[in-house]
UniProtKB/TrEMBL annotation:
InterPro entries: F420H2_quin_Rdtase, Hemerythrin-like, Split_barrel_FMN-bd. Residues 162-298 form the Hemerythrin-like domain. Belongs to the F420H(2)-dependent quinone reductase family. It catalyses: oxidized coenzyme F420-(gamma-L-Glu)(n) + a quinol + H(+) = reduced coenzyme F420-(gamma-L-Glu)(n) + a quinone. This is Cation-binding protein. It comes from Streptomyces cacaoi. It holds the Pfam family Hemerythrin. GO terms for molecular function: coenzyme F420 binding; oxidoreductase activity. SUPFAM superfamilies: FMN-binding split barrel. CDD domains: Hr-like (cd12108). Gene3D superfamilies: Electron Transport, Fmn-binding Protein, Chain A, nmb1532 protein domain like. PANTHER family: F420H(2)-DEPENDENT QUINONE REDUCTASE RV1261C (PTHR39428:SF1). One of its GO terms (cellular component) is plasma membrane.
Length: 308
């Protein structure tokens, strides 16, 4: 998720904690001393302004066969308040978030868990941090449990061409998530009573789709403003190819907008229409990414690395 100026907003209450966290590689004193703390930066649902908050977190149990430490879980408890905290409403609108843990700083997709997955995760959280049980007892709302899914581990910079491949891998992964989760949702809906779909359909579909769409839009914007003009200056003979890419950007952007509109009514949408639209977008996007790699990677590989 690109971060623009002005810097992320931090409330007066949270500012000392955030400053201490960043000055001491994630270690803080006071009420947070000894606890697992992260900084979460979201984009405001109404303001569009980035906002940073300190949150406690619990590591999710690694899946079978996964040697890693598990993904991070945060709970939108607000201390048991009757309303969801602002940061939770923000990530529903903009799933791409920024996470700081210790000295680590990375982008993630924020996915609220549903149904049995939420119940298992909340039980795991309460086992590790019992105070959340008190927060749940204080409010009638079910406290959302949010998984922060790290899309990939940032690799050392080896060239602009490799960075483009990394972005494309991320985009393809998010689109695959949307396809897989859409199929799982519609399959449950079609089975009916034997395996009913979730009461709030498609939160995972929605979050991954929005993450994909936001990332795609940002990727194209950065190309239009930076990569494509730089390549034209260095390789003017590529002007026809660059013009084709710009035309494809407009086509893919229109498909992206239609997919978001379709997703808003996923609970009532016709499965075949949804699948057909998704298949069409997938084909056009894959063809666009393939062509982009064919045209852009060779000249990008020749560009010198950025200073520093």
């Amino acid at each position: 998720m690109p971060f623009s100026h002005p810097p992320a907003r931090v409330s007066d209450v949270n500012r000392p904690v955030v400053e201490e966290f960043r000055a001491n590689a994630g270690r803080v004193g006071g009420m947070f001393e000894g606890g697992d703390l992260l900084l979460l930066t979201t984009v405001g649902a109404r303001t569009g302004r980035e906002q940073t908050v300190p949150l406690g977190f619990v590591r999710e149990e690694p899946e079978s066969g996964d040697p890693g430490p598990g993904r991070l879980l945060v709970v939108a408890s607000a201390g048991g308040a009757p309303r969801h905290p602002d940061w939770y409403r923000n990530l529903l609108a903009h799933p791409m978030v920024r996470v700081e843990v210790g000295e680590d700083d990375f982008g993630a997709v924020a996915v609220p868990l549903e149904g049995a997955a939420r119940e298992r995760a909340f039980a795991h959280v309460v086992e590790r941090a019992p105070g959340y049980a008190d927060h749940q007892a204080a409010t009638a709302r079910a406290l959302p449990v949010v998984r922060l899914e790290r899309p990939y581990v940032d690799a050392p910079f080896t060239g602009f061409g490799d960075k483009l491949r990394e972005v494309h891998t991320w985009l393809r992964t998010q689109l695959r998530h949307v396809r897989d989760e859409t199929e799982a949702y519609f399959a449950a809906r079609e089975r009916g009573g034997t395996a009913a779909p979730p009461a709030v359909p498609g939160l995972r579909i929605r979050q991954h789709c929005l993450a994909f769409c936001e990332s795609l839009h940002t990727h194209h914007t950065l190309e239009e403003q930076g990569a494509l003009p730089a390549i034209l200056r260095a390789h003017p003979h590529l002007a026809p190819a660059v013009e084709r890419l710009r035309a494809e950007h407009r086509v893919v952007d229109a498909l992206r907008a239609r997919l978001v509109a379709l997703l808003d009514g996923v609970a009532e949408s016709d499965p075949e229409r949804f699948r057909a639209e998704l298949v069409r977008m997938t084909r056009e996007l894959e063809a666009h990414l393939d062509y982009e790699e064919e045209v852009l990677i060779p000249p990008l590989d020749l560009l010198p690395p950025p200073p520093g």
